Amino acid sequence: MTNQNSASPASAPDVVKQRPPRILSGIQPSGQLTIGNYLGALKQWAALQSQYDSFYCIVDMHAITVPQDPAELREASVRNAALYLACGLETKHCTIFIQSHVSAHSELGWILNCMTPMGWLNRMTQFKDKSAKMQADSIGSGLFTYPTLMAADILLYQTDLVPVGDDQKQHVELTRDLAQRFNSMYGETFTIPNVMIPVAGARVMGLDTPTAKMSKSEKADGHAVFLLDPLDKVRKKIMRATTDSDRVIKFSTDPERAGVNNLLTIYQAFTERSREDIEAQFDSKGYGDLKKTVAEAVAEGLKPIQERYNQLMGEKGYIYEVLKKSADRANEVASTTLDLVRDRIGFVKPLR
Ligand code: AQP
Q1: Which of 2, 19, 104, 190 has its CB surrounded by the most CB atoms within 10 Å?
Q2: Per the domain annotation, does 165 fall within a domain?
């Protein structure tokens, strides 16, 4: 994993500095989680959890920036909580909560909205990509201001490190800019977070369109491998992945060879082996061998996750209990920051 910003010292008040370093990250319950979400986020969350005080959220308020079916949103939120645990997150290290259970996110999101220049939001490539796929009159303003809510998510917990896939790097940079702006306007309030991007799997591409990011909301059948796909389906999807006619099995940045590069990247992320090793393994092999080997590695990686998930979904009471306890802890931490922010900007303290 690479830490993409030169570490700047935490700039929160002393009262919030006396604690272990903190992580926050989240995934939208906007559909079935993909191996992109796993390799870009969940896998590294699990690897980091024992070294940090970790907050991992199910960001349902971000999910509604595009239309969602209420029943599906509710189901996906609980399913994601189970998948976070199935992917190895442990409650002794992590606070796993649903974003809408902590109302401080909306409040700080609004405050940050009021101080974010429109030009900063206009530069966000994710808004451009997502809105380009929608009818102009169905694009909600929440999709445009999504990055300020994400900044609130991060800053409320005085977060030191934000582990995300490559696509979210720009949003974390905006969060840093906003925190610095707020601190210089009102005095030291927020810790300045750093982004952490995985070395392998930072951007998993669509199997059918290897020049576009694999996305959970993309509907084409051969586009994504979902964490809960039956393993035979996983294998079939990988066997049908788009490649090229070159027959060279090497990592490459050439867009013409994006399909093979994507398969190698997925293989590297699942096996945690070096690029050199992998290229040597496939020296003088064909694309059929490559696909079969990658398909097996992915199926093998997903098998224990699916087993644990099925077990957890049989104990839904346990999942709700985890979400409740976590929301209590998250509320406690978030309200400390929010009280400070309210005071800094001049809101009258209510009588309690
Ligand atoms: N293809 C990907 N490769 C690597 N990392 C990825 N992530 C998502 N897709 C990939 C990482 O997963 C985390 C959560 O993402 P998200 O669901 O909150 O938002 P997203 O990036 O918009 O993901 P999707 O799958 O594309 O969702 P939809 O289709 O709903 O918009 C982030 O850390 C992200 O980097």
Answers
A1: 190
A2: yes
